[in-house]
Amino acid sequence: MQSWPVQDAKARFSELLETSLAEGPQLVTKHGKAAAVLVPIRQWDALQAAGKRALKQVLLDPAAPTGIAVPARGGLKLRRV
Question: Of the residues 4, 9, 25, 54, which has the fewest C-beta atoms closer than 10 A?
Answer without folding.
Answer: 54
